[in-house]
Specification:
2 copies of one chain form a homodimer.
Chain A (H helix, E strand, L loop, with lengths): L4 H23 L6 H8 L3 H7 L3 H6 L5 E2 L1 H9 L5 H10 L1 E2 L6 H13 L1 H12 L2 H14 L7 H24 L12 H15 L2
Antiparallel strand pairs in A: 1-2
The first copy, chain A, binds a DNA duplex (30 and 30 nucleotides) through helix 1 and helix 3.
Chain lengths: 203, 203
DNA sequence: ACAGACAATTACAGTCCCTGCACTTTGAGA
DNA sequence: TCTCAAAGTGCAGGGACTGTAATTGTCTGT
């Protein structure tokens, strides 16, 4: 059992994560205690909390969703007037965590989508990318800005828009219909409803 | 100290709430334990949890924000084409809890707005009115629907719109500038930014 | 190769939030 | 007045999480 120090740390984290997800899939969120996960993973409770700050983190993954860099570049390069369409494309590429363990990732999504409390939580985490999105939106809006708009106004618009996008994400998650796996986004439906709704909002 | 039974219950709740808010204002959220609140209120811990399901509930109030009935009636009666404007008016009348104790209410807002964790939490509670808003939006959208739209489409639109409104609320709370007291909504700013932004979203 | 720095892990004790249960007290209705 | 339900209490315990000191094994410089 000779392993490098950091490798040993990583393998312990993986073991914890895998056992946490498996146990919760089997018994449900509330029925699984940290002690159960520790025993299954063969570690002490203290070690558990050295790897993950909370029980939830071990279950849903410590790293939240991130925006895909390539998708951001495409979004910024696009000169299409269809800002909303481009935006939805960008949101669709929210990477749902570390893709190095496809099996774990898939199991996690099954777990999250079948546990209301976890779905709510993951929704909040997805929406937290809204913060990083503001700067991206500022760039895009600046390129297509009307003359006479100040940078402050642009930033306000980007800020508000990022919150509207967060709303779209929530709708996409809750809306029924086919989803892109392993993510929960229902893109087509959202796009269709938006096309009907938006014209009604401008007077 | 002879009081009717239910009145005694109410006064205990009030005592707990007042001491909870006061102590957290003095010492901060994490530094105040349930035991401290109980001692200050002169009750047992068990009684505390008979009145409030969690420590947080005693601090921010068990009843979340509600939409104002009169505002809803006005919103539905309006025939203005400015749906967004009417919507913001409606949102502005989110009642921030029981108005029977103005002092407590004011102290709570001071507490919530100065404690990031509580602000985040209260934001979630305000946004939960989004659920009740869907039915209201269905009525309004039905009255101004284009011919050929099915009830299902209308409901989808209302659902998405309610999520967009939730985004507006978040923006309103975070946006700097004057707020309506004791609520956190910055109405004018949101309206102005929306007027600039929305035309850019329709192609 | 050896010693010391250092990282991963552990056992243990303790805090805090919260719950279930059995019990007492007290006010309200018959 | 008698009775019963509601309000409150005491206690025992579960479960998440933290601080600390100790242990084990690995890395680094010489």
């Amino acid at each position: 059992m000779e392993r490098s120090r950091s490798a040993r740390h990583a393998v312990t984290s993986r073991t914890i994560e895998e056992n946490a997800v498996r146990l919760v899939l089997e018994h449900g969120l509330d029925a699984v205690t940290v002690d159960m996960i520790c025993e299954a993973a063969g570690i002490s409770q203290r070690t558990f909390f050295n790897h993950f700050p909370t029980k939830i983190d071990a279950i849903v993954g410590a790293a939240g969703p991130k925006v895909d860099e390539a998708a951001v570049r495409r979004f910024l390069a696009s000169s299409s007037p269809d800002l909303v369409g481009d935006l939805l494309e960008l949101v669709m590429h929210l990477a749902p965590g570390d893709p190095s363990n496809p099996g774990l990732m898939e199991a996690r999504w099954r777990l999250i989508t079948t546990t209301p409390a976890l779905l709510q939580l993951e929704m909040d985490r997805m929406i937290s990318v809204q913060r990083e999105m503001v700067d991206i939106l500022v760039m895009r809006l600046t390129r297509h800005a009307n003359s006479g708009e100040t940078p402050e106004e642009i930033r306000d618009q980007a800020d508000l828009l990022s919150h509207l996008v967060a709303g779209m994400i929530r709708f996409s998650i809750e809306a029924p219909g086919p989803r892109r796996m392993p993510g929960p986004i229902n893109l087509e439906r959202t796009r269709a409803v938006l096309r009907q709704l938006l014209p009604k909002l401008v007077d």
